């Protein structure tokens, strides 16, 4: 698995390594968009691995403006950024994505030597594959639960987002998206992208996208476009295979629980294998490999293999001046290193432009790490292995020469950061957003706590594709959703007030661990900022740990808690991501101020003829003002 950069796109080449040799056909995987790309990342990665294991070279990649690729977030701008083509003279997202697919196919041909290319797309990626196939000269197209009608797809996305807002954050009133833009969970589609998707109509194509087509049908026949598309493509002379995709709902759900669809992926591998032949490996001069480092907009991003290759990350650094501070972002839940709404990509590049390095980390069982697991659950996400992985990443950053290492995590990422900091003295700062658990023990492995189910499992249910498809078809009553929303509000009220039930003996255990942890961090001078939304479920654990008035941290100058009015649990809201970014940037600014003060002290103390290096910095006491936060004088 080799990271590659082409035309501003970041991707992975999976070499065909089958036991019988390499085949003459390669596959370009055309990813879905937004949250669907996040949820399907694990499945997509393992499909690439399975194809490669069958001797079929594969390219999977992020379109420009998405994932790890360059450019502002075309389909998901952090604060309403506009699509390409909105007065810029550049192509819009659909046209640019089609061009990216064509460039990817050319790269795959050049690097692997294949003579035939198959495009394989999921959801909107299937539509993009169909639109790009003629330009690529594809010998086949695999369309997995394709979007045939852009208008219908947008209606589905609106229902999904409304369901999440009404059930997960009913008490928050975020500012609306700019006119014409559309929020879908953590991703914002600019108006131009919305219009381009709306215009997608595969049922009006007057040709077949390729001579051979595989269609995997995820929906019931009366609402699915797949049977009609199969008939349409056959009428234009294609050889079409139409199969079911009943594993789709279990794949297209929150990444903590998303499955790899074994039967569907076997069908895809088998179909591509039937189209291809084994080929002789030539001894021609090898083609120079493409770059693996992205340089754009004042930042440099390079892949990192840490802990003897077990961990993967993207290290983002300033293009010119070196940095001595690095921020490490562990995974949130089961997501890969990009983060919901592309949060860690945007934040990494923002930090680099401020002279600070950042590492987007995949722990060993997630994302693009070499041993990423096929299945996931909360116990694995919170496991000792994951905690140790973050500590190993800290060691790796120290070995790279960074003297000041800040861990910044959201939800489970905050948990991993806290425990890595307790285990590793090289950590000098922590920014922990919406921490739900101070510790994880055998009881948590047996069954996830109510708060975790409230925070992440409920999200999965609220965003479940099958539920919202049933709602759109009238088979799921609105009353049930309203009842669930009311229950959610009551739960939030109890959590915010600290009145939720606690297992017998649990309060003292939580308090003992939490107080001991922050006292140790304060003793070491580790600047520790806890950040919560005003009604977050984690407030219950916070008050169990530190007292109803947070009195346990009153005397700890390096520990602080901020409670913000607009911070949803997973930072799906644009306003929430911006609030987290402001807290992190303020934290880093205080570290730099402390560094500057320490250098002045060292300079004054040193003899005129001697230049002494500064001692390792300790995080400063907080001085920033925040009227909503709990403040120390």
Automatic annotation (TrEMBL):
Residues 67-88, 605-633 are annotated as: Disordered. Residues 44-177 form the Serine aminopeptidase S33 domain. It comes from the Bacteria. It holds the Pfam family Hydrolase_4. GO terms for molecular function: aminopeptidase activity; carboxylic ester hydrolase activity. Keywords: Aminopeptidase, Hydrolase, Protease. Residues 67-85, 607-624 have a biased composition (Low complexity). InterPro entries: AB_hydrolase_Est10, AB_hydrolase_fold, Hydrolase_4. The keyword Iron-sulfur does not apply. This is Serine aminopeptidase S33 family. It comes from Cupriavidus plantarum.
